[in-house]
């Protein structure tokens, strides 16, 4: 990210932060937008492909993007489902860039060959890789692992920033070592996120035999590896927070002592333009239709839960709760 964009991002974040602390109107600086719930995979921990939602067309998206811009959003995360199942992905990316967003794209990369020529304007890529080919297939179904690696290599060759998103379904340290070695070899970063349970978008509830101490030990292991210089994008605050979590069977809790930044600093939008504080709150929060209403007029700052270990959302919350340290780490990576 060039210095000008970095400064712009810093300014948008500072506005969000001050609005939050001064109890002003919500002013999210980041939005995640699922352009489709459809997916070419059926991962064990994700139920999004089973949630039917009409999709916005390009014209409607332009209305949405202008609204987001006016709201103060600068970073737009395009995800799904699988964004590459939308034939107009190239147009969507072009439009998002035209409206001036820093654009990231989350993808399983299986359809990369079909879209590689239209991906150039994307600023940052998140590639799903859960571990070895065998582990990846257990979590995400049988597919071409080699294709994912080839796509990743091509992006790196084209000087694109790539982070592998690795969903942690069990505390297997050998898998963490494998992912770190892969990241070093492929010249990318890796972000580890715990599997989430009990939400409309999650695929399942926690297994009865989930091992708490082994899970805690796993996250401490990652923290140690990061301190030793492993290319782990997850921040130290994030890894520490997860290693101290009280109950790994519970992904989020409501605690009146805490206040969550979801909705105030960042929002999540479904394919039909309905916004939620975060993706995890779909199903227990009445969404706001951004094609009809303004988020800042409808959102009262209250979230159904106030503290969680949901991958990127925890990183966002730390950005607002421990601004100095988290900002230095996140802006250094310019990811979140
Ligand atoms: S604590 Fe906040 S970010 Fe986490 S799931 Fe709840 S509303 Fe979303």
Structural commentary:
This protein is an alpha/beta fold and 336 residues long. The protein has one domain (3-330): TIM Barrel (Alpha-Beta Barrel), CATH 3.20.20. 39% of the residues lie in helices and 14% in strands. The protein is built from twelve helices and eleven strands. Strands 6-5-4-3-2-1-8-9-10 form a nine-stranded mixed sheet, sandwiched between helices. Strand 1 (30-34), helix 2 (58-71) and strand 2 form a beta-alpha-beta unit. Helix 11 (311-321) packs across helix 12. The radius of gyration is 19 Å and the shape is globular. The two termini are 12 Å apart. The mean pLDDT is 93.
CATH topology: TIM Barrel
Quote the beta fraction.
Answer: 5-15%
Please tally the helical runs, counting DSSP H or I stretches of 4 or more residues: 12
Strand order of the largest sheet: 6-5-4-3-2-1-8-9-10
Q: Which kinds of small molecule does this entry bind, naming each only once?
A: iron/sulfur cluster
CATH homologous superfamily identity: Aldolase class I
Head-to-tail CA distance between termini: 12 Å
CATH 2nd-level architecture: Alpha-Beta Barrel
